[in-house]
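Structure tokens please, single chain.
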Amino acid sequence: MILIGERINGMFKDIGKAVREHDPKPLQEWAIKQKEGGAHYLDVNTGPNSEDQTVDLPWMVKTVMEVSDLPLAIDTTDYDAMEAALIAYGKPGAIINSIGCEQEKIDRVFPMAAKYDADVVCLCISKSGIPKSADERVALAMEFVANAEVYGLQPDDLFIDPIILPVNVAQEHAVEALETIRQIKLLSNPAPLTTIGLSNVSQKTPHRPLLNRTFAVMAMTAGLDSAILDANDDMMVDAIASARVILNKDIYCDSYAKVFRQR
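Here you go.
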């Protein structure tokens, strides 16, 4: 289970202010804090108020890399800024986050992923919007897998995101997302990886940590490989570590939660 720390994102007020002022301190503090919490990757996102992502996003990448050796999930739909950030990253192993299932986006991003040896988060969403049913989402996932072969990528270079919506406004989507994860694992050999933006499930509810933890464990039983989440929610990380033991993914020891964070 790959934990992608969500906190270095300009949607948060402290990070948005830091990006505008090019103040490295908040970014670097959160980079260190999320690694200590158990993150395996760090998501970096300028947020909506960047005046020039081609400048701000590479700056964020370099700033975080000064204090952290964790790989980065570079989060933008401005693909010129994405390429500038990948150049700033300067090594293999980044995650491109993200693209929807539109051929012009695939044709732009998949060659970039191959060139820079990066993985790609692929969203089960098209120009028509987010499908309701698992079957429709899996059909979009299959389009990503077919295109990967064309561009020299392997299926497991892809992180397929079935899209989870807030449970208080789209409760029926949660079970479809779980079924999508199950079916995605059957699409190819090797299978694509799966991911979700976990915090979306609890948006604007009064029980956010509980809903997030519960959905994370349920999704893991369906085959979830990763999530973009709050890596400093200790109860969340403990629940994920516990689920890995119960699913026979990790060997039990009395300090299994600590071991999970240190990997």
